[in-house]
Amino acid sequence: MTKYKLEYIWLDGYTPTPNLRGKTQIKEFDSFPTLAQLPLWGFDGSSTLQAEGRSSDCVLKPVAVYPDGARTNGALVMCEVMMPDGKTPHASNKRATILDDAGAWFGFEQEYFFYKDGRPLDRNPLGDARVRKALSKAIDRKTIIARVMEGEAVPAGQLVPDFLFGSTPNLKVENFDVDGAKKLLADAGWPNGFGVTLHTPNDRYVNDAKVAQAVAQMWTRLGIATKVTAMPSATYFPQATELKFSTMLLGWSTGTGEASSSLKALLMTYNKDKGFGGTNRGRYSNAKVDALTEDALQTVDDTKRSAYLQRATELVINDTGVIPLHFQVNTWAARKGITYVPRVDETTLAWKFKPPN
């Protein structure tokens, strides 16, 4: 027999907006309990504005049960509030007034948790730049390139390769330094780490899911228990845009040939009206980065625009607004004698192929 933690959940009697309530009991079952196995459970309704103190008995009636992803052997038990007879719906039980409809869904959405020991954390650790820097230091980029990418990539320390406009000579690839990463985690108040899920497409970038698995293993060795969820890009990107993910693997190819493309789309504060941060799915925000990038977008002089882009890039990378991994090397094959000059945007243009001389 296994002991299960049953979290009975219901809505109280507060108006105009009721609150979620919960209480836990431990019961033994041979396997995950079915709805029929879950008992009615009485409670004092006077504390939830569902009864008077002189006659405060109410009863919780389970109506659905689901696994609790934040607890080992946990179950979330959705309940209706009933009168003491266990059959008559309580006046606050508005669900009982809804006709049963197999096509209707009612529920509460929680997009993601950061967790430790099976319990949600009281704050987001990724809000601390030291934690983000620790995650970057824990990644062995050279090993990923050698073993996962089979050498067909270049380690990245900024948003664009060195040969593109707006790259800066002042940034280097982050050194692989597990001890330094552990110190940063401890300084940030997470000496024992925490848990997180890394989401990734499995059909968009070269070896994308394998790269995510490698990163997850490195973070786990650091003390960040990391699970990987991989899915087709048709499913992945809509969910990423809806901000469903806490950490995610993404790629970006600059359509403008300079760093402004990456800064504007990935790292400027999200602003639908201005068209900034359209793919800033982590909602990173830095006013100085915004100002410098906006200045660059409005500047024609190459020297000045490059300086703006370089400074913005340095600020965002030093703040670890994103964690650069590598620049993948795109490969084209052609018949003997035909040549083609590869493009960083992955586009294949027929008129760029050259026949034998």
Walk me through the structure.
- With 357 residues, the protein is of the alpha/beta class.
- The chain has a domain of 99 residues: Ubiquitin-like (UB roll).
- It is built from eight helices and twelve strands.
- It has a five-stranded mixed sheet with strand order 2-1-5-4-3, with no helix packed on it. The chain has a three-stranded parallel sheet with strand order 10-9-11, with helices on both faces. It has a two-stranded antiparallel ribbon with strand order 6-7.
- Helix 1 runs antiparallel to helix 3 and helix 6 packs across helix 7.
CATH topology of the domain at 2-100: Ubiquitin-like (UB roll)
How large is the count of helical segments? 8
DSSP strand count: 12
CATH class assignment of the domain at 2-100: Alpha Beta
Write down the secondary-structure element order.
EEEEEEEHHEHEHEHEHHHE
First CA to last CA: what distance?
78 Å
Structural class: alpha/beta
Largest sheet: 5 strands, mixed
In which order are the strands of the major sheet placed?
2-1-5-4-3
- If you average the pLDDT, what whole number results? 91
Strand content: 15-25%
What portion of residues is helical? 10-25%
CATH architecture of the domain at 2-100: Roll
CATH superfamily of the domain at 2-100: Glutamine synthetase, N-terminal domain
> Which value, in Å, is the CA radius of gyration?
27 Å
Q: Low-confidence spans: pLDDT under 50, at least 5 residues?
A: none
Short description:
This protein has 357 residues and is α/β, with parallel strands linked by helices. It contains 8 helices and 12 strands.
